[in-house]
Amino acid sequence: MNRLFRKESANAAVMGCILIIMAAAPIIVSVLFPLSAAVFALLTIICVFEELGSDKSPFCKLGTVVPMMLFPINGWLFRLVFSYGSAAKQLGKRIKEVFTDAPVLTNNDDKLVKFLCTKGFPVLCSEDAEYYSFGDMMFSDMLKYINSAEKSIFLEFFIVAEGSALNELTAALAGRAAAGADVRIIIDGAGSAFTKPRNFISRMKELGIQVREFCPLSPAALSVVNTGDHRKILVVDGITAFCGGINIADEYFNRKVRFGIWKDGGIRVSGNAAGGFEKMFLQMWAMTGNEAFIQPESSEQHGGISVQPFADVPLNGCRVSLEVYLNIIGRAEKYLYITTPYLVCDDEIFGALCTAAQCGVDVKLILPGIPDKKYVNIITKSRYEKLINHGVHIYEYRNGFIHCKNIICDGKLAASGTVNLDYRSFAENFECGCVIYDRDLTEKMKRDIDATLADCSEIDTASAGKGSAFVKIARIFLELFAPLM
Question: What is the spatial distance between Cα 246 and Cα 253, in angstroms, rounded to a whole number?
């Protein structure tokens, strides 16, 4: 029962009350003073034109403009709070102060390499690398490297939740902290608000582990509630790094069943490449602590696998993850395989996928057979028919929930990380990933997808268009709010 009354629950209740007041107050004033309704509607129209003039994609603008037009009496108030609140201004300021990566010079003519270099993400060498086809395999290796850490352990996760996985991780971290290692954790304030143990932060501090939250859930953070730290990073001693789809919760390792078998995974890199993820972590650490970012020392480049770790930062005007995906899709000649839990993105991705399929590329999308969010899955399935009609093959994982985020092109190029094919990943969240230029590692990822396809059912045009009258109506309504999901 204590969980019901902890701080996050109280904050959520206060935030809910604030939203109700924001929705009701202009309506009440309009009833009492009819002329005010015209003033409120005019303010909403001004906000609509301001949104239409922004540099967002048309799809993203739709997600803001439609709700404002549907609720003109109070649409302006939500716009002011969510776009111009003090928390949003402070976050934007800190992003400009911390995430100022200078362009990296390169002689490589590859367009993707050049693009990421202009954003401050060079090609780095990983002395060895590994791809994990399931979350439990990845977590087991993470614990092994943590237990051998000598200097530092940096973790950044969207969700930490009570359970055996967190208990094992805590024990390993406590042991290394007691041995003198610098152990730090960053969690997302909203993502972990109702899942982390009641005294998680204080308990970690007792064990000598530093913990920071990105935008803790509170009424003061209302204007940034739509922005999250969705990254999943582990860096050990600055020389080994993990990145992928898993969070620290038992369902990610199939220790608890929620949506059938949970299919997840990620990659491990080492050497100089691990330094790229260490830099990402330290930038977020500086931002969450209102500190100046200090560039970590980089290790010498050695031979090995060429990779390009990258990060996406919201509110900076550049959608790095989107450009990575568009570039990989655009260069496919033989095949293009993508695994993603969600498919809620704008026409840039859909157009690129359809074009690739019509050019003879074997385009396969693998999505969950058992969704975790039914309302998002309704939107996802509304895309099926159009994609299938353009030659894209869509598969659903019969055994459960696909949560890994991979894209593979022609056996020579791939990317893996935290990026979903949805608006939130491309525009609202902090994300990260790694482009892989190694044929052996890419081939291992392809073999995993081939094995996964054996447990999938292909969706045809007839089944894609199926749905009850309620579902079809829900699709139309939810489509209007898709960018907010």
Answer: 8
Q: Could you give the maximum distance between any two Cα atoms of the chain, in Å?
A: 74
Rounded distance between C-alpha atoms, residue 243 and residue 266, angstroms: 6
The answer to whether 125-308 and 320-484 have equal CATH topology is yes
pLDDT of amino acid 290: 84
Q: Which CATH number fits domain 125-308: 3.30.420.40, 3.60.15.10, 3.30.870.10, 3.40.50.720?
A: 3.30.870.10
479: buried, middle or exposed (CB in 10 Å: 19+, 13-18, 0-12)? middle
CATH no. for 320-484: 3.30.870.10
Residues 347 and 425: beta-carbon distance below 8 Å: no
For 407-425, the three-class secondary structure string (H helix, E strand, C coil) is: EEECCCEEEEECCCEEHHH
Listed by start position, the domains of the chain span 2-84, 125-308, 320-484
Nearest Cα neighbor of 357 from 340, 343, 337, 327 is 337
End-to-end, the C-alpha distance of the chain in Å comes to 30
Looking at residue 19, what is its pLDDT? 67
* 241, amino acid identity: A
Q: What are phi and psi of 225, to 5 degrees?
A: -65, -20
CA distance 298 to 282: 13
Instruction: Count the alpha carbons within 13 Å of 473 in the hemisphere toward its beta carbon.
Output: 3
User: What 8-state DSSP symbol labels residue 289?
Assistant: T
SS3 content of the chain, % helix, strand, coil (to 5): 50, 20, 30
User: CA-CA distance, 114 to 191, in Å (whole number)?
Assistant: 34
Predicted pLDDT at 17: 75
Mention every residue, 6+ apart, whose C-beta is less than 8 A from residue 199.
none
pLDDT, residue 5, reads 36
* Local mean pLDDT, 10-residue blocks, the chain (485 residues): 48 66 76 83 85 71 76 78 68 78 82 93 92 96 97 97 96 96 94 89 95 81 75 96 96 94 95 93 92 75 86 82 95 96 87 95 96 83 88 95 96 95 88 95 95 94 67 65 62
Give the pLDDT score at 467: 65
CB atoms closer than 10 angstroms to residue 445: 24
pTM of the shown model: 0.89
Nearest CA among 274, 300, 249 for reference residue 149: 274
